[in-house]
DNA sequence: TTGACTTTGACTTATCTTGACCATATTATA
DNA sequence: TATAATATGGTCAAGATAAGTCAAAGTCAA
């Protein structure tokens, strides 16, 4: 069915991702581009259109010698709790709302008690003390990033 | 996974450091360079990017005949580590410095791996995306708060 | 023929590698 | 003992490597 390079690269990456049973794939942009005879930035296009958090992936990368692009799958529970949460993430978060969210995540065992306390304190307005509405946007990005991490990294302590 | 010589040399040195249970490793620059087939100054690069005081290491060296480079891992007094750290907290923190600090706290078991990854990601400039120098001040406050929590909240790991 | 999606490439940023030249300590020699 | 030779390590800037951004151009279906 795939009739363009982007679709082909997408399928390729998803196949590799399935074969790696840890849900992580690491590639070199230029290498992959060469494999599919396209310009390197095409890889960025594929990633930014098909491997977003909406799609259930988190991407990291490093430039320079020995650089890479790493794609991780978001871990799914039956309810797709974290994926759903990330998909509908609000662009602004008040302190009260973020605290409620953190409490909920802790109740559902996504966060340890200590992580929850840490996040709650970090997101207090005295700490994130920039002017509104920037503050609420910043708080949103911070917690979003934290949730992204718990969605992709296993916590060996629990 | 390390795809470049610098990472490999870093891992090598850290392994040697662990094996030597006094937390000290002494090398000869040219010898090490030869071992990894690189120019001697590459060793300096590795040290200056991965074994700084922020990372929790002290490096001494001597030139001339019988010269050496000695890397010492500095473990702070377990009783007062975090309090001392908090007392001398810098008002601004770059991304590189905060990453070094987080890595160090993890090495000394003050942070779990997941907490460390979470904090590192939250403190990235793309996330804390306000203009400098505000960004570095904000990063400082955020990490300060996190460390404060792990200092007061003695979790099950300690 | 318009609009969404894809492809391309010029330019930017980040990180690592290399080498020429510099500084300092030890050892040999006058 | 002074000085020269040798043996190390240090600095820094240029070059190499690799990913990111963005906008212009191309494609294709409705």
Automatic annotation (TrEMBL), chains A, B:
The keyword NAD does not apply. One of its GO terms (biological process) is regulation of DNA-templated transcription. Pfam families: CtsR, CtsR_C. Residues 4-74 form the CtsR N-terminal HTH domain. Keywords: DNA-binding, Repressor, Stress response, Transcription, Transcription regulation. InterPro entries: CtsR, CtsR_C, CtsR_C_sf, CtsR_N, CtsR_N_sf. Belongs to the CtsR family. Coiled coil: none annotated. This is Transcriptional regulator CtsR. GO terms for molecular function: DNA binding. Residues 83-144 form the CtsR C-terminal dimerization domain.
